[in-house]
Amino acid sequence: MSCNMAGEEDFFLEEKRFKQYCEEFIKHSQQIGDGWEWRTSKDLDDGYLSKTHFQVRNRNIPPDLKEKNSDNIEQTLFTHVEESSDDSQVAGVCATEEVIRYEYHVLYSSSYQVPVLYFRAYFLDGRPLTLDEIWKSVHVCYKARLLEGPWDTITQQEHPLLGQPFFVLHPCRTNEFMSSVLTSSRKQNRHINYIVLWLSTVGPVVGLNLPLSYANLAPKQNTNADSVERPLS
């Protein structure tokens, strides 16, 4: 079994296990109405997790007051979104707000053997956010870490299945930080869902937060943590 320089085991996620975790993830999402779904490419057998999320920003309300009222604003918007898929009507609900539509995709990388988060964001008039605007939207507590290392650097690349420009959190060091947590979980014999653990770590960097109920999601079978991921041999 291989270990990294910190003495931790290196774990890589097999594509079969990736799809199993996604299946469990989607099932829970459907139960709580979180909006995740599995999409497939017309010409390929590959698929990916997908979710659309509306984020509301108001440039006229002070940040501290906006934070207090954001739940009510977003709840109003989300309720209307469920009733209509027309972006113009969504904008009408919050005429004084700035509404941004985020689209998140989770794909499997055969090269890195880890999941990868692709996303894009645009205003309801169709104008996409630039890379500079994306960086400005990243919370200050994450910016320092992003600038320190390449593991979650935001770049723009072509979506491997759709062939369209998307932003992506680079996966080159995903295995490094995931191995640390997985090794700890294995020692404690705790049940985990790789997608939940990974997405709850990288998602908040780009405005994607998972409800706490996902933390209780565990594999249906296999109680031994060795069967959850495949260590390097």
Low-pLDDT segments, ≥5 res: 1-8, 61-74, 76-85, 221-228
Radius of gyration: 19 Å
Number-wise, the strands total 8
Distance between the termini: 4 Å
3D structure, described in words:
The relative contact order is 0.18. The protein contains seven helices and eight strands; from the N terminus they run E-H-E-E-H-H-E-E-H-H-E-E-H-H-E. It has helices at 15-32, 63-83, 87-93, 131-137, 140-148, 174-187, 194-202; strands spanning 11-12, 37-40, 47-57, 98-109, 114-123, 154-158, 165-169, 230-231. Residues 1-8, 61-74, 76-85 and 221-228 have low confidence and may be disordered. Helices cover 36% and strands 22% of the residues. The strands form two sheets. The chain has a six-stranded antiparallel sheet with strand order 2-3-4-5-7-6. A two-stranded antiparallel sheet has the order 1-8. A hairpin with a 4-residue loop joins strand 4 and strand 5 (114-123). The longest helix is centred in the first third of the chain and has 21 residues, at 63-83.
